[in-house]
Each structure stands twice: as C-alpha cells, then as structure tokens.
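Lay summary. Proteins are chains of building blocks that fold into shapes, and those shapes determine what they do. In this project we predict the shape from the chain. Here is one chain we studied, written as its sequence of building blocks.
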Amino acid sequence: MSSGFSAKGDGVVVARFEAAEVAILRSLVSELLGLVEPGETGDDPLERALGIGDGQAPSDPVLARLFPSAYEDARDAAEFRRYTEATLRDGKRADARTMLDTARSGRTELTTEQAQAWMRALNDLRLALGTKLEVTEEVHEEIAAMSEDDPRYPTYVIYDWLTYLQDTLVRALW
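And here is the predicted shape, written in a compact code that computers can read:
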C-alpha cells in the first residue's frame, strides 16, 4: 500500500503507488470528470461564449457539495453561481486531468503545481464520496466498528485512504 506523499526538495513531492491503487484513483477521477462536465449555459450566444450559466443550484447532493452556494440569499447565490460555476467546473476538470495524467504505479513524482492540482482533486473526490456515504465526523469510529463483511466497508476504506493521501500531500507541500 502507498506510504503517502513525501517532500523530495525543490517543491517536488513523491509517492509510490501499487497498480491497484492507481486503478482506484483513475476510476474515481473518471467518475468525477463525468460529474463536473461543463454546465448548462443560456441560449444567448454571448452567454454561451463566456460560459455564463443559468444560476440554478444543483439538485444532485454531490454537485451541491462540490459547488455550494456562496450566499444565503437565493438571488445573490444564483447571480454569483451564474458567473462563476463554469470557471469552477473548468478548474475541477483540469485538476482531475492532471491527476489522471500523472497517476502511475511505482514512483510518482509531482511538481508543486501538479501536487496542488492533486490536492484539490483529492479534496473533490473526498467531498463527492463523503456526500454519497453521508460521512460525519465520527467516520473513523464507524469504520473501526464496521464489519469487513459490510458491503459499505470497501468504500469507507477508500474514503479513509483518500483522506490519508490528502493529509500526507498537505504535509509534503508545507
């Protein structure tokens, strides 16, 4: 199993992954890319060109977690979302693609920019998976008490592993 990330120096971080771990990461990132595909834009050609959306909050709980409302007031939140969500989606896709392009079995070496993209993508993966699992602050206790025969167990372990990877990456960068 991966020992997580460590600093090599000069802003470079390294990790060693087994082939199965890379397969899991690639599968999760591919699902994430499907979730954060470009959003809907209006019929106006200028709005389409600029990526201005309709401002509607996502009804999917995972998307709502990945793209939370910036304001409590519904009108302000919709206006803000209208002008920012397309760019946020672009950023999440770029980070996910960086992870896909650089995840490999054996030694993985990342530049500072790639490592920061991994950090953001790992966070998005954890948010998405955590939302699906309805993770609470007691997740570690839940995993410890859960039988390995529980059908949810592997997914919870993956969530915990993503948390570990993100933690070691943060520590390696700082």
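What the prediction tells us: The first helix runs from residue 19 to 35.
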